[in-house]
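User: As part of a screening pipeline, I want to sanity-check one entry by hand. Below is the sequence and the SMILES for S-adenosylmethionine. Please return the complex as structure tokens so I can compare it with the automated output.
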Amino acid sequence: MDRQGELKIIRAAYARQILAAARIMDNARLEAALSATRREDFLGAGPWWILRWFRDYVTTPDADPVYLYTDDLVGILPERRLNNGQPSLHAHLIHQATPAAGAHVVHIGTGTGYYTAILAHLVGPSGRVTGIEYEPELAARAKANFAGYPNVEIIEGDGALVPFDEADVIYVNAGCTRPAESWLDRLADGGRLILPMTSDQGFGAKSIERAASAGAVFRIERRAKDYLAYWISPVAIFPCAGSRDEVSERALAEAFAKGGWQKVTRLYRDQEIPDERCWLRGAGWSLAYS
Ligand SMILES: C[S@@+](CC[C@H](N)C(=O)[O-])C[C@H]1O[C@@H](n2cnc3c(N)ncnc32)[C@H](O)[C@@H]1O
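Assistant: Here is the complex for your manual check:
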């Protein structure tokens, strides 16, 4: 068997392992997308920098792509701790986002595009993905990586400000202290927003417990004017440029300190929610218990 044949088998085993690690029992489409997408095509030439959790980066022994098919984060700009995210975390979040064939997905924080490619596989040729990346160098790399993809458009800019068409899924891959107005406005009826909310204590934290009490991912589903919200994962993730500010940073840190984010059921575009029902009150929005 040639090397490409071997890597196909390795990718298929990886896809199974990642779904098992994410405890996903019934998503053959996601398994196929993980199995078909070549991680090495999005991470530049090896050797690569692998992040060993709560330790540091370790380089792979050589440029054999086999080292990329583990459940590890890989440094894209390791000097800034900007990484290609953990496969089982993304499998879980993408599974929760349920991107259907034909859907429009907006991916905020595309990086160099590995998870954008998985989303493009899931929406298929009748759907499309708009990837938005803030860092010019990474946006340029993503544009080059998707040159042959008719269903992917990469835009350089701030995902909170770049205009985009109504989306069935908005998949945010950077830590915010508040949702952008445009994400709530442009989410289609029935659409899902995957929103990582992080205080400034979690990113680079030295223990899992510390990170888990400083970062939470919410799944927000639009139902006409209502937004159902529930917690789907702890997270420690690179900060979202432009979607953080001191006031909401403080409010979020206080909300994490008091606990209860797992009980959130609604996002309201309103801050007049009584205290006993409110987990986090922002300027003109709240995360609350219904
Ligand atoms: C944790 S990295 C993930 C990259 C990519 N999703 C991956 O896993 O390979 C977060 C990415 O979000 C980008 N980012 C941060 N703020 C952003 C914003 N306001 N709009 C778009 N991208 C942003 C960063 O430049 C970075 O590439």
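Points to compare against the pipeline: The CA atoms of residues 156 and 183 lie 17 Å apart. The first strand starts at residue 49 and ends at 51.
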